[in-house]
Structures are given as structure tokens and as C-alpha cells.
Amino acid sequence: MNGSGSILVFRLIHIVSGVFWVGGAIFIAMFLLPTLRSVGPAGGPVMSYLVQVRKLPLYMMGAAILTVLSGLGLYRRDSAGFVGTWVRSGTGLVFSLGALLGLGAVGLGMGVAAPVGNRLGGLAAAAQARGSPTADEAAEMQRLQPRLASASTWVAILLVLATAAIAVARYVP
Prior knowledge:
This protein is elongated. It has six helices and no strands. It has one domain. It is 86% helix and 0% strand.
């Protein structure tokens, strides 16, 4: 594939997977988690289904990985192989900021949100199988829910900031 063909593929992958990732993160942080918390134990089966059956964390992780790898390819091309002059330009600095914000979201999502979400999904599945959570499970779920909400909110914030940086980077002198 020639250079212009590969750039189109990288851009397509970067934009489509990025839209899915950012949109999913915003939906989870602003709508899904607050709704699940407000309905209490009735939200457990929904969380369990999303994590255990629909594999939402895997889709989010896949979108994050595709976005980062395609973004790295685009960054490499735009910087002519990571040449310092371009990287230190206004455009290069803003693209770099967007990349760092996106990588921060990956770290927080994979390091905190995904493991906590998986744990909550497992607890919800166990509770659903028995009909209700044990006292220990209920206490752990209460402890984990705010952590997941906070991590998810920060992931969404970082991704919105990364998206904003990437959107304007080409226009920064």
C-alpha cells in the first residue's frame, strides 16, 4: 500500500475507533453508571450482563488499543519519523498533548476502571445466581462503585480533552 493509502487506513481506524471509545466512555460515565447506582441491586444483573456476556470492557479496550496504535502511525508520519523540529512546533506540541491525554485515559481505564468493573460484574453475577448478594458482597460493591464512577469520569474527561487537542492541533501555529 502506498503512503497515501496507508494514511487513509490509519485515519479511518483512528477516527472510527476513537469515536467508539470516547462516546462509550462518556455514555458509561454520564449515564450508565449513575443509572445503575440509582437503581441499587437491580443494576447488578445489567452490569453482569454487560461485563460477562457482552464483554463491554474488551470492546472498550480494543477501541483504545486501535486508537492508540493508529494514532502512533499518524504521529510518526506527520513528524517524519519523530523529528524533533516538528514535535516542538505548535502543531506537534498539541498533538503530543492529545496523545499523552489519550495514553493517560488508557492507563486509567485498563489499570483501574476495567479491573473494578470486572470485579463488580463478577460480584453481581454471583449475587444473581443466589438471588441476592451476601453482606460481604454488598459491602464490597458499595466500596467499589464510587471508585469505578470516579475512574470512568476521569477517563471520559481525559478523552474529551485529548479529542479537543487532536481536533485543533493542525491549526495551531
